[in-house]
Design goal:
This protein has about 800 residues and is α/β, with parallel strands linked by helices. It has 32 helices and 23 strands. The strands form 6 sheets. The protein has a 7-stranded parallel β-sheet, sandwiched between helices. Strands 20-19-18-21-22-23 form a 6-stranded parallel β-sheet, with helices on both faces. A 3-stranded antiparallel β-sheet has the order 1-7-8, with no helix packed on it. Helix 7 (about 155-165) packs parallel to helix 17 (about 390-415) and helix 10 runs antiparallel to helix 17 (about 390-415). It is elongated. The two termini are about 45 Å apart. The model is unreliable at about 10-30, about 285-305, about 330-335 and about 370-385 (pLDDT under 50).
Length: about 800
């Protein structure tokens, strides 16, 4: 015999009620009579409705065969107010009245239930309706409740955790818990739990998703006795945020359909027909000829203006352009709304929302023409406020994400050696706005992906770039909704990522922590996803964005504005990893709490960058004699790197050292201007180099110079020293912390061409000093391998994650 033991007719004080009120649907309005017929068609042999603290809904069908009256009772632990839901079966009005009197205290409620032989089940044990559930309360629940529910409205992970915990209970453990909490078990053999299944369905879209079976019984009375004797078998499977969101959309649509009489449009509008089939448990059939007629008529429907018109137009276009969605309109979905329908609905909403965002993004950037681009973030924020059609998904992912930390704590407490606990290893989602571009951040991330893959560390790089195929197993690229070019920096684009797809991917992949490499749109998405899913998030500050903004625009007010955004962003991180003490001090001075900041290790590929690669590279590529002294710069060729200072210093040096050759490795917006400025001087611009060519370019040079005073780290400083070159850096930023002045190179005042040329002249005049510094530089780097540094950094992620979950 099969029964769905947890089915609602009304929305009464459920956790999502406030959301439904915001979208205009304060209650589910599913008719109990319709649900009764529906459950019978699904093969259920009897029926009950378990509304919150009321029996009014089930009373409407109590006269029908096989219906028994039940109720979901809200109760509380008196010491902390943690809320529980207890489903009580086969009751009457008098018992309901008594339940309302005692339900304020869970101990009084349990005493009453056992004293009156009332069959009851602890609903969704690891879901906390008011966020006050604790591991200690779960310990008390083990002593109080004989039968626990596997709840079809919760994640499969939650259902599996319930099975894991109850299967691991022992008499010894229950004795310890009874002594710990000074609480006598309410029933015999409390280490043996019965299990039931119930859909917890509020919308009539997921009835019997999870249900209970008791073999060999003939009526619901025998069935309930089987439940109480712990003979019941839960069937079915859990839900996902897609399921709950589909339900929320269904509740809202059904509400508005009745209130606004949508049926009058059902024969005229493609969208209404699609919504009827997707969001209502039953719809009427329409034939192919009528469908074509409705599609034609739908072109003239919906006279709304603004956002409503855009949404209606994009919805209709999306349906008509997709054969799968079109086919779904032409036929009724039948009696089984499966996971395929949830996925179809998710795909539809995501597709439409992306088109709406594209519409407003294009409009936004059209309006920004000629306006300073760094106002972009505020403008996008105002546009996104109109993006309310995604609210049910945000709420659903939030509710499911909220459960995960508690489930993890419970499993860690009751079954630390279980397979489920072993599955909670650190899994990092590393968001970045830059991966395929040519810069130090992208190179470092690519190398981290390689090392993670080699060493088995669970790191996934998540980025967003148009037209890029997957090249690494642990790098995931999403196609942007759209992208825009920065007027002040044409080589840099602002992308708009598909947020709903990112959110779904992070949830489904089971990441345990999020890290943001950059504070651009992907970084903002990372922060929003971390908040929605209740995941710990950290960020790396490795680019002096405010200073770069000032360089690019020549406007100090822009720098101040970008500082405000940057500080807001990193202040929302749990931890901020910084590459140098200089960077940490700057952030503290700007207002970031020092407790948030952590210096993280940086390493280098000691095989790739090695003096052994010195092989006459420039003789082949630039026709330079090996004896010609070569001054090398590697990095982005952009104004903020102070390359104009290097150009002035080189011009001065050329007068005394006419054989000195300057080599610029890299590319960027300042390259053409720098080439024009130095066209009469011995300078080579190689463009971007990588692999063996880059290694040889380093090792075959004589001195490395890095004039930037804004870099937070300067990975090229490590590469040059590992290649056996003395380095010359400025006294501002992070590079000076990654060399030893006077031993592996020299530190000079920033933005001072005279000081830079003087320091370089000293090295040119003393070949022995230059050689000694090169040897010392290589020795200084010997213990800074990239792999060791990355493993140490990954362990920092794991430690911060454990602290956020309250683990030691």
């Amino acid at each position: 015999m099969k029964i769905d033991l947890h089915l609602h007719s009304k929305a009464s004080k459920r956790p999502t009620q406030w959301v439904l009120q915001k979208i205009g649907a304060p209650e589910s309005f599913s008719q109990p009579q319709d649900q009764y017929r529906y459950t019978r068609r699904l093969g259920m042999h009897a029926m009950t409705l378990t509304d919150h603290n009321t029996i009014d809904g089930v009373a409407e069908i109590a006269h029908l065969p096989g219906v028994f009256v039940s109720e979901e009772v809200t109760t509380y632990f008196p010491h902390d107010g943690a809320k529980l839901h207890v489903v009580v079966y086969d009751i009457n009005q008098e018992i309901h009245n008594e339940l309302q009197k005692v339900r304020a205290n869970v101990y009084d409620l349990v005493d009453y239930l056992f004293a009156n032989n009332l069959i009851h089940v602890l609903a969704h044990p690891f879901y906390s309706p008011n966020d006050r559930l604790s591991v200690e309360n779960v310990e008390r629940m083990c002593l109080l409740f004989k039968v626990w529910e596997l709840n079809g409205a919760r994640a499969q992970e939650s259902m599996d955790a319930v099975r894991t915990v109850v299967s691991g209970l022992t008499p010894e453990l229950l004795d310890k818990l009874a002594n710990k909490h000074d609480l006598t078990p309410s029933h015999d053999k409390p280490w043996i739990k019965g299990l039931t299944g119930g859909s917890d369905d509020h919308s009539s879209l997921n009835i019997a998703r999870c249900y209970t079976e008791v073999p060999g019984v003939n009526n619901y009375k025998e069935f309930l006795r089987g439940v109480w004797n712990r003979d019941s078998i839960p069937r079915g499977h859990g839900s996902s945020p897609r399921t709950l969101a589909h339900n929320l959309y269904g509740i809202a649509y059904q509400f508005f359909k009745d209130r606004l009489n949508f049926e009058r449009y059902a024969g005229k509008d493609v969208l209404i027909r699609f919504l009827n089939n997707m969001l209502c448990p039953e719809t009427e059939h329409h034939n192919e000829l009528l469908f074509k007629l409705y599609s034609f008529m739908g072109r003239s429907f919906a006279k709304e203006s603004g956002l409503k018109k855009v949404i209606h137009r994009e919805c209709t276009k999306s349906i008509q352009a997709d054969p799968d969605l079109t086919a779904f309109i032409k036929k009724h979905h039948g009696d089984d709304l499966t996971q395929a329908e949830e996925e179809r609905w998710f795909r539809f909403v995501s597709m439409v929302s992306n088109k709406v965002l594209l519409h407003f993004g294009n409009k936004l950037f059209d309006n920004l023409a000629g306006v300073n681009v760094f106002s972009l973030f505020d403008s996008i924020g105002s546009a996104v406020t109109q993006y309310g059609l995604l609210a049910p998904y945000f709420v659903s992912f939030g509710l499911f994400g909220r459960d995960k930390p508690m489930i993890r704590r419970i499993v860690n407490r009751f079954a630390p050696e279980s397979e489920a606990a072993a599955g909670y290893k650190t899994k990092v989602a590393h968001f970045t706005d830059t991966f395929y571009e040519v810069n130090g951040v992208a190179r470092t991330l690519s190398r981290q992906a390689d090392v993670a893959d080699k060493t088995g560390l669970d790191l996934t790089i998540i980025t967003c770039c148009p037209g890029r195929k997957r090249q690494k197993t642990n790098v995931v690229n999403f196609e942007p909704v759209t992208s825009f070019t920065l007027p002040e920096y044409p080589q840099q684009k602002i992308i708009i990522p598909p947020f709903l797809e990112l959110l779904d991917y992070v949830y489904e992949s089971g990441f345990t922590t999020i890290h943001s490499a950059t504070p651009g749109p992907m970084g903002l998405a990372a922060l929003a996803i971390a908040r929605v899913l209740n995941l710990p998030i950290s960020g790396t500050y490795h680019t002096a964005i405010p200073q770069y903004a000032s360089y690019l625009t020549g406007d100090e007010s822009v720098e101040e504005m970008v500082w405000r955004y940057t500080l807001w962003y990193y202040d929302n991180m749990g931890k901020v990893y910084v590459p140098s003490s200089d960077t940490a001090s700057e952030l503290v001075q700007k207002g970031i709490s020092p407790e948030k900041l952590k210096n993280y290790p940086r390493g280098i590929d000691l095989e790739a960058f090695n003096p052994a690669h010195r092989n006459g590279f420039y003789r082949r590529t630039a026709s330079l004699d090996d004896a010609t002294p070569k001054l090398l710069y590697v990095g982005r060729v952009s104004r903020e790197k102070n390359l104009s200072v290097l150009a002035e210093a080189f011009k001065a040096l050329h007068q005394s050292y006419p054989d000195l050759h300057l080599v610029i490795v890299g590319d960027g917006p300042f390259r053409k201007e720098m080439q024009r400025d130095l066209k009469r001087y011995p300078v080579s611009f190689t463009g971007y180099l990588e692999g063996d060519e880059l290694s040889q370019a380093y090792a075959s040079a004589d001195i490395f110079v890095f004039p930037s005073s804004t870099d937070t780290f300067g990975n090229v400083i490590l590469e040059a020293q590992a290649s056996g070159l003395p380095v010359v850096v400025t006294d501002s930023g992070g590079p000076r912390e990654n060399m030893v002045h006077g031993l592996t190179g020299l530190v000079v005042p920033g933005k001072d061409p005279g000081a830079l040329s003087q320091a370089l002249a000293g090295l040119l005049d003393s070949p022995k000093k230059r050689a000694d510094m090169g040897i010392a530089a290589r020795g200084y780097m010997e213990d800074r391998s990239f792999e060791a540094a990355f493993k140490e950094h990954f362990q920092m992620y794991a430690a911060d994650e454990a602290a956020s979950y309250g683990f030691k």
